Amino acid sequence: MEIIKGGVTAAKGFCAAGLNAGIKNNEKKDMAMVYSEKPCVTAGTFTTNKVFAAPVKWDKDIVANSPFAQAVVVNSGVANACTGKEGDDACAAEAKAVSEALQVPESAVLVASTGVIGAQLPMDKICAGIKELPKKLGSSLEHGTLAAEAIMTTDTVDKQVAVQIEVGGKTVTVGGMCKGAGMIHPNMATMLCFVTTDACIKKDALQKMTKAIVSDTFNMISVDGDTSTNDTVLVLANGMAENDIITEDSKDYQTFYDALFYVLRELSKKIAGDGEGCTCLFEVQVKNAAAKEQAKVLAKSIVTSSLTKAAIFGHDANWGRILCAMGYSGADLEPEKVDIYFESEAGKLKIVENGKATDYSEEKATEILSKNPVIAIADVKMGNEEATAWGCDLTFDYVKINADYRS
Question: Residue 361, annotated ligand binder?
Fold first, then answer.
């Protein structure tokens, strides 16, 4: 697998664009479009919040029932959530406008929104943007970056990843972009993710691997414990690499799985590391658990602990907060067996052995915790399973950003 520069335009046959449609009432880009020259098989996973946005309802139906998709249109600034029938009608109107602009079926159009909940989409601006976006479509890295910037809300950087692999002698590319910085919690978050690939793959195989990978990537990140209304991961495969079709039983299934896993994992980490107001990515590894689910529950409990996140911000090796978070997680645990380490580019330090503090150096611990990223490792010594979760530190700026989000 080769890591390359790029995002949604890296794969053959995909174009993208981003522009300012005036939705945010400022100069920032707020609409994006992704388009494939050829129809795509699609896969998707969506928010588990029972309060879900109109675009989530629309996309679920397209992924489940449409034979293919060919375009995605995204806006930032307004979430189109809690908007009733008017919100549903807005999705249909967007699909119709894209259909007319690109000459694709309405059933081949996916839509997504992110931003303030409860506000109706300004459809005059949305439709004007949809008419303009096709004129700006392009397949360069720059075009992909414009799209990645247009879907940002409180993100501080655009988020893109791309890789290439060999499948049956053909070069296959997988690239993606995402957004997300707040209202981020396991079971997905206020995050949108769009992945494109020129692989030739069966829809059921793509859906199966997407669901499994999201479980170990996007569902293992947390910034603030809030699960959003708009979470969406969409994967589009147009088959233009002309490889032998990948099925669940083919020898190339795992090769493509690993590439998609890498892209989704790295995008997940980019979201966690860009958490609102954060200063560092906080990674939690749980080792030697008795079961995978036990490891995941423990890792997520640590990474979501506000007290632990605050200690990371303060570069304080307050290991008791980690052990406490493990204890209230609900997972089986034998505290007297647990070892805890902190690790970063400054080194690795065991701070707890068999549930008790080691004679560690506070100065060295502070040095390790002053770097970015910071890794906490909890060895529970109960088996051979492991899991990793990602989050960030909790800072003063998180409150400042969210206290006046709508203004």
Answer: no
Mean pLDDT of 319-333: 96
Residues 125 and 9 in one domain: yes
| Percent of the chain scoring above 70 in pLDDT | 94
Which of 232, 257, 273 is where one domain is finished? Answer: 273
What tens digit of pLDDT does each residue of 18-63 get?
Answer: 999 999 888 899 999 999 999 999 999 998 778 889 999 999 999 9
Instruction: Give the residue numbers spanning the domain of 107.
Output: 2-273
CATH code where residue 349 lies: 3.10.20.340
Rounded distance, CA 291 to CA 342, Å?
Answer: 23
> What's the number of domains the chain is made of?
2
Q: Which of 21, 30, 78, 19 is nearest to 54 (CA)?
A: 78
Four-residue CA torsion sign, 47, 50, 54, 60: positive
Is residue 402 annotated as involved in ligand binding?
Answer: yes
Catalytic residue among 45, 83, 114, 190: 190
179 is in an annotated binding site: yes
Statement: residue 243 has pLDDT above 50: yes
pLDDT at 185 exceeding the cut of 90: no
Verify whether residue 366 is a known catalytic residue: no
